[in-house]
Task: structure prediction
Amino acid sequence: MRYYLFTIIFISTISAAFAQISREEYIEQYQLLAIEEMNRSGIPASITMAQACLESGNGNSTLSLKSNNHFGIKCKSTWTGKTVKHDDDEKNECFRKYNTVEESYIDHSNFLMDNPRYFSLFQLPPDDYVGWAHGLKKAGYATAPDYADRLLKIIEEYQLYRLDYKMTNEQLATLKHTKPRKKEVLNSLVINPYQSHQITLRNNLKTVVANEGDTYEILSQEFGIKAWELYKFNDHPEGYKPLKNEIIYIEAKHRKAGRKGMLTHRVEAGETMHYISQLYGLKLKPLYKRNNMKAGEEPHTEEIIFLRNNRR
Result:
């Protein structure tokens, strides 16, 4: 009986390890990221999504799983980041390695924007995914002779052209099996390769307000800041996704309250130490230490939190 039970557990573990997500699930997971990159770069979201599906095997390929490389981009001479060896046209070729999937999407846009071979594609209408598909093949993005046709098949089969109008799966439900026309789309296409977040000062620190679908990786590209710095500035773990309208600091917070009159804070119901640290632009770790609290400990309603001087 023990051997039988062990066999079931072992098989279940192996099956879970090799579980793959479907193309529909992959699109659902990363469609907003493709739209964000379209807004930033001008590359049709349908093209980005189709390339990611094809190059990463819907996120299931060995390269994407071990290096978060979802577009099959090789190192090239200009790459100074992490690398990984992978068999492709030749054995042990050098590919780019990323900390997150978001970084891969961002680098894919940058790779196309910074390469003169692809400059002519940015002159195409923003929803001309057909022109982009053939242009990528002509410019040599991939060696497969049917590369453009494979991209177009994915776009048409999964109606990815809707992403070029900022139409997500949920919005598509009202227009199912119908190619959306511009007059049917409520959210007009906006191409904005420049900054889309307004910088405002809070607590004498630079901040922005998060839009829906924002990530620290996307914001880091916009403001020329490392993604890990944004996580650190805002006391969040890597991978945290900011909420819509959340205040994000784009420079390091203070160790203590800047104004002498700002000495304490009386806690209201539901407030956390992280909320208080963001409210006053204070680093979370020193705030815990100043109040003789352990990391992760939360204050009680009506408790006084010291912002400038240490609690006695």
